[in-house]
Amino acid sequence: MPQEETTSADHEVRADDRYDAQRIEGKWFERWPQDGSLYAAELDSAKPKYYALEMLPYPSGALHMGHVRNYSIGDALARYMWMNGYNVLHPMGWDSFGLPAENAAISAHTPPREWTLRNIANMKAQMKRLGFAYDWSREVTTCLPEYYRWNQWFFLKLYEKGLAYRKQSKVNWCPKCATVLANEQVVAGWALPTLPRTLSPSSPPAWIRSSARLPSSLHQSIRW
Fold first, then answer.
1. Four-point Cα dihedral 129, 135, 137, 139, nearest 10
2. How high is the pLDDT of residue 195?
3. How far is the C-alpha of 114 from the C-alpha of 98, rounded, in Å?
4. Mean pLDDT across the chain, nearest whole number?
5. Distance CA 74, CA 80 (A)
6. 94: how many CB neighbours lie within 10 A of its CB?
7. 56 and 98 in contact (C-beta within 8 Å)?
8. Which positions ≥6 away from 142 have C-beta within 8 Å?
9. DSSP alpha helices (H): ranges in 32-111?
10. How far apart are CA 203 and CA 187, in angstroms?
């Protein structure tokens, strides 16, 4: 059979058929509870439990496409487990007590606390706008005392049990940052990500955690 001729007009999408993200997503965004209660884990539930946690972001600026890719994967996994009947715990927080946030604040000539808290507010608003299914009632901010006091408590307990001790040890000392860098932050003696920056060989006394004596699973407990 002969094919009917088509024109470019037949392939044009009418304006009212296009996806209007601003209008459609804005409507539903206003209907979502902004306190995270929509995605809160149930405290008393017979459902099987599932804990979904993506790596907490450094609040050193705004979200970029790398963040969106990473957190979209975690969000899809959490939603999949919800749909399969699991009681899902899916929190979010901010890795804000470290070198990236401090260096970003120094570059911006802004006090670290002011810079960090402002970025957290901005990135949190962006995450909510993206519709990620987080339980914001469980949000953690590692630079705030109510969080890091527990890091200090854990360290004291490790020290009391002889699981943390001080000794001479070679480290990746960065003279510019005045701190020790992880091996993953060093390539051929150069500091990342702000190359070039040579490291100074240093062997200051350092706190060592005895990993060999720590339990291999959190289900195995040390008598504190």
1. -80
2. 47
3. 15
4. 82
5. 10
6. 23
7. no
8. 56, 93, 94, 95, 96, 97, 98, 148
9. 65-83, 99-107
10. 19
The CATH code of the domain at 36-143 is 3.40.50.620
pLDDT digits (tens, 9 = 90+) for 144-195: 999 999 999 999 998 898 888 887 777 777 777 777 777 777 776 665 655 4
The span from the first CA to the last CA of the chain, in angstroms, equals 83
In sequence order, which residues have a C-beta less than 8 Å from that of residue 123 and are 6 or more positions away? 57, 59, 62, 63, 94
Cα–Cα dist 23/91, whole Å: 28
Distances (CA, A) of 55 to 29, 69, 82, 130: 25, 12, 20, 17
The pLDDT tens digits of the residues spanning 19-40 come to 888 888 888 888 877 666 789 9
Question: Among candidates 110, 80, 83, 114, which has minimal Cα distance to 96?
Answer: 114
Q: What is the pLDDT of residue 196?
A: 47
Tell me the domain boundaries of the chain. Answer: 36-143, 164-210
The DSSP secondary-structure symbol of 170 reads: -
> Which residue did the predictor score with more confidence, 185 or 88?
88
